[in-house]
Amino acid sequence: MGVRVLGPRDLSAARAVIARDPVVNVFVDSLVQTSGLDPRRGAEVWGYVEKGVLEALCHAGGNMVPVGAGEAALRAFAAYALRRGRNCFQILGPARAVEVLWEALEPHWGPAREVRDDQPFMVIDGPPVITPDPLVRAVEPVELPILYPACVAMYTEEVGVPPQTGPDGTFYRSRVAELIRTGRAFARIEDGKVVFKAEIGSVGTGVCQIQGVWVDPERRGEGLAAPGMAAVVELARQLTPVVTLYVNAFNTPARAAYERVGFRTVETFATILF
C-alpha cells in the first residue's frame, strides 16, 4: 500500500483507472497516451497502490491532477507531494478531490494566488444545436504570427498572469505552433486579426477537450462565441464523438454560449492557482 512513480510497465493498469471515467479524465488520458508513462517523455504520474492493485493516479507536472482517487488515495498523494516539494503551477480536477488535496497541502503550499472552486465541466456528444459559423476554420502554419498574440491575450486574461514562456520566450509559442501543426487550432480571422479562436488541448479515448476559447474584446457582444463554438464542435467531432470543456461559473456569458451550442454540465471542477 502506498504511492510510487509509475513507469511504462504500469501503462495497462493506469489506463484501466482512467477508463473508469474517460470523459472526466480526458486531460490525463491524453498525456499518458503521449508519454506512455515514461517520465523522460513527460511529467511523472504517481500511482496509489492498495493490496497490490493500482487504484488511483495523480499527474504531477505543471498541473497536478488526481484521477479516480478516494480520500485515502488523495491524502497519500498529498503526503507524497509534501515530501517531493511543489513543482506545479496549479492543482485541478473534480472539485471534491481538489478540495481534499488542498486541505492537506494549503498549510505548507499556501496561500494560493486564486481558488476557483466552481467550474462546470461540460460535455456535448452530438452535433451542435445551432448553426456553426462558416468562417471558423483550422489555422494554417503560416498564420502562427496572427494567432499567437490572441493566445497570449487569452491566457493572460484567463489565468491572471502571462504564459510561462521560458528564458528564451519560445515554450508557449512552440505549444501554439504544435496545435496548429496537428490541426487542433481554429479561428475566425478578419483582415489579418483573430476575432474568435479555440483549440483542442487534449485528445483521449473517444473524447477531446476544448481550451483557449476567446473573442476579441472589441468584438464581444456581437454573438460570435456561440456560432464559433458550434463550428469548433463540428471540427472536434471529426476527431472524437465526445467533446468537453470546463469554464468558470462566474463567466456567465461563456456558459450561456456553450449551453446554446448544446453543452451540458456533468461534473464540477476546481482549480488552485499559484
Automatic annotation (TrEMBL):
GO terms for molecular function: acyltransferase activity, transferring groups other than amino-acyl groups. It comes from Kribbella voronezhensis. Residues 134-274 form the N-acetyltransferase domain. This is N-acetyltransferase domain-containing protein. Signal peptide: none annotated.
